[in-house]
Amino acid sequence: MKNQVPGFSVFILCILSRTVLAKVDPLYKACSVRETCGDGQTIAFPFYIREKPFCGYPGFEISCNSNGNPVLNLNNIDYIIHEISYNNQVVRVSNAAVSETNNSNASCIDLSSHRIQNLSLPEDRFALLSNQSELVLLYNCNSSLPGELLRYRNGICEDKNKTAGTVLALVRNDANLENASRECSGDQVVAPVDVYAGNGGGFGIGEVIKRGFLLRWTASNCSDCAESGGKCGFNGSTYHFKCFCPDRPHGLQCDPGKANGLITKVAVGNTAFNSSS
């Protein structure tokens, strides 16, 4: 015959469970919620959405665009985040001005109306990964180009208003870069790219630029806090890393006894409420 838990005991355990849950630190609860812009990528420390700066690290604020992509602003230029590797502390980004365009001609990319600017990084937080290429964009080039330079226009849409003239794209180590520069009187922009899909020319320019490049980030180490059951965050008042735990915020990691004690009490209350033998 099954032993029934007395009704009074169930009532007491239920109250205990609710009381313990109510004592869970609100910052811990807030940072425990999985955040995403809608594309399936998880936004976690050091990144944070604007509404929860305490769940991230300064300089890693994320906004969401209308397509559901996370957007990172670096020195007033927006970059779409395509992939985040939290284990390697690496993020793949691309210039939002180009990545968000929907050209009627899918075979080319408009670099005139949606101009790419030179990359400027907050060096205390982000750095380019090595072994990536540099794409040099030359603006306001002559419309009549020598035959050997025509291929550097491939994949680039012409500016209908001719405000930027003809645009050329070459990799930094291309032997024709110097000759091409003489044919262009406008700005020169250097855009990092992860892999250049061509043989020193404009082949695949749109795909390569939209694929973006890789950045490694630097922020407070989250591993000790996460392994202790906490949620990594930051105290803007003291400007220090914080580990948000079920009982309260801690400096680096949760107190195993207190954090586990809260969880154990909740588990016991729930188990007793549903128990039968």
Automatic annotation (TrEMBL):
Descriptive protein name: Uncharacterized protein
Organism annotation: Pistacia atlantica
